[in-house]
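Researcher: Sequence recovery benchmark, item below. Answer with residues only.
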């Protein structure tokens, strides 16, 4: 093999390797991209949103790294999440699947639905009907008739949620969040598998936190066509959602 060609191959291989290492460090320690595949966080996050999650917000655990190495069983440089944060976490059921939900309950909190309203530590979470009330919202391939509310948590955090006009969840048992665990719910209240479902999600350990959702960097609406149909980008790409801060 020609020496120049051999040198070029080695040099390029080193460059690629360094680039991969840098990308791995950034993904593990700083920011990781995620894609929203379901409607469980509508109206906050829509199917097709692509967002960055900060990995450093709550410190690091085994789920901060690719393949979640099992020899890491603690969380390091831990920072307590803030109630109302939108967080990516690994589901306790398999410790592999990524979910994104809103943090409602902290360790020691109680949460309960009574007559369709949420009670946090026996106090009703304030909600008001939004002026931009939406009549329909996605749930898989279905459309739900919903009311859009603005909810306000005790710490002043505000966000929008969707509740079915007919058949919304009315009452539940009281949930008591264990120590070092958290209680999450989707903003699309009647189309979200979350901590209310103890058998499949339930309370989420602080070790399972992956990071805080920060910003939408790209968004498409696949219902209006495949992204490769560049002649229809004006309809497919949701330009108004790009660089939107996640509240």
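Model:
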């Amino acid at each position: 093999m020609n020496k120049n060609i051999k040198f070029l191959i080695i040099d390029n291989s080193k460059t690629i390797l360094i680039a991969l290492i840098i990308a791995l460090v950034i993904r593990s320690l700083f920011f990781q991209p995620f894609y929203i595949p379901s409607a469980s966080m509508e109206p906050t996050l829509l199917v097709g949103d692509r967002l960055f999650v900060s990995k450093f917000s709550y410190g690091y655990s085994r789920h901060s790294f690719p393949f979640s190495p099992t020899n890491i069983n603690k969380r390091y440089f831990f920072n307590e999440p803030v109630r109302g944060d939108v967080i990516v976490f690994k589901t306790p059921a398999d410790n592999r699947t990524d979910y994104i939900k809103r943090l409602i309950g902290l360790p020691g909190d109680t949460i309960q639905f009574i007559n369709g309203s949420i009670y946090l530590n026996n106090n009703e979470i304030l909600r008001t009907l939004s002026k931009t009330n939406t009549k329909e919202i996605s749930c898989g391939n279905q459309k739900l008739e919903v009311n859009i509310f603005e909810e306000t948590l005790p710490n002043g955090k505000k966000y929008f949620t969707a509740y079915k006009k007919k058949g919304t969840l009315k009452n539940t048992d009281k949930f008591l969040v264990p120590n070092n665990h958290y209680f999450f719910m989707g903003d699309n209240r009647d189309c979200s598998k979350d901590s209310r479902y103890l058998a499949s999600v339930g309370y989420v350990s602080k070790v399972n936190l992956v990071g805080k959702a920060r910003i939408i960097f790209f968004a498409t609406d696949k219902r209006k066509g495949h992204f490769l149909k560049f002649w229809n980008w004006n309809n497919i790409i949701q330009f108004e959602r790009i660089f939107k801060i996640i509240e």
